[in-house]
């Protein structure tokens, strides 16, 4: 627990004490530099000086004894003495609020840790040798990685080792939305879910926003921690403490790494954080390279117009989901959807409007499905939805819900067209009605055409 001396007088002194104490800091208050001077032998972690006056008795002696202690110098009237501004590890700040004060405190504490680490490295040649060996080892391992997943897993395995942590999660930056995305696997079902948070939410969101690494010794005492956000790789893992660092390349944020729960109930240290920062810095270029390769791969399985997945991805994914359903005795459902009378839209309004309808339809489908469900543009005005771990009756209910959503929606309303559209749906499941990928696709397609050639705007499900 960092110990802070709060020195001087201010109408906000009580508020400052409460704000700092709420962040887990140990506060000692002194009315003047003279009163604080004998206590400097305790070697506090940081000094906060309220309205420091270089004419005050003992001021010069105080600066000499406190030279290596970080200082936040607060002023609201008289300005900040030049003798203090010139001091190392000194952060001058004018009339701060609670957030600004905590930011300054955290910044100086981090700087002190980094400077201490630098001095240790500089004065110990064996540590420098270890640093070189570390870098060479990381480079050698990462050069052999074949894809993004392998690169990321290699980095995080090393992160767990150097920090003695129980688990980890990685939030990647979505370039389109600016949000942070993490893949979370349920260890029971092996189902991978996409988890999204906004920049600023939770510990990872704060690190992404501020650009600073951070240690959270006890998440229950940190207001930034949001349990629905910071639940990391294992949905059932109870988070106690977190190390969190940004991963940057050429100043661009690529990802945020979270390491949680040091083993044996211990607390993460500044040394753990430094090691993680070092690993993130050395791995950044490899992660960026792997991300670029992944984007190229994604382009080959993405529909140019709607940005949904295409047929190539559909066949690859259904094969995997069918095998998983048969192995774990669960169900995977397939919904085929065809827009009713879509030709009339193109004939009456033109193909540009028709394309915009398809894009809006794709977004409507995504909004009405789970994160784990997959939406594919099958071709023309046909869409396919893959629903993992979904029995036939539930899949039929999902199809009916989407049918109603399409029927209620007013398409291209903001562009002045206000089009009303319906769609026909066919539902099949594995292993209930199909035992293979080919059979599942064929049965769902045939079920959709039974609606299309009879009533339209309906759902036909094989139960």
What is the gist of this entry?
The protein is an alpha/beta fold and 463 residues long. The protein has helices at 13-22, 33-36, 59-65, 82-85, 98-122, 125-143, 148-163, 202-210, 270-299, 311-328, 342-349, 351-367, 392-408, 437-452; strands at 3-8, 26-30, 46-50, 71-75, 90-94, 165-173, 180-185, 192-197, 214-216, 242-249, 252-262, 332-339, 374-379, 382-388, 410-411, 419-420, 423-430, 459-461.
In words, what does this structure look like?
The protein has 463 residues and is an alpha/beta fold. The protein folds into three domains: 3-120, Response regulator (Rossmann fold); 125-297, Beta-Lactamase (2-Layer Sandwich), CATH 3.30.450.40; 311-461, Alpha-Beta Plaits. The protein is built from 14 helices and 18 strands. The protein has helices at 13-22, 33-36, 59-65, 82-85, 98-122, 125-143, 148-163, 202-210, 270-299, 311-328, 342-349, 351-367, 392-408, 437-452, and strands at residues 3-8, 26-30, 46-50, 71-75, 90-94, 165-173, 180-185, 192-197, 214-216, 242-249, 252-262, 332-339, 374-379, 382-388, 410-411, 419-420, 423-430, 459-461. The protein has a six-stranded antiparallel β-sheet with strand order 8-7-6-11-10-9, with helices on both faces. A five-stranded parallel β-sheet has the order 2-1-3-4-5. A hairpin with a 2-residue loop joins strand 10 and strand 11 (252-262). The longest helix is centred in the middle third of the chain and has 30 residues, at 270-299. It is elongated. The model is unreliable at 232-236 (pLDDT under 50).
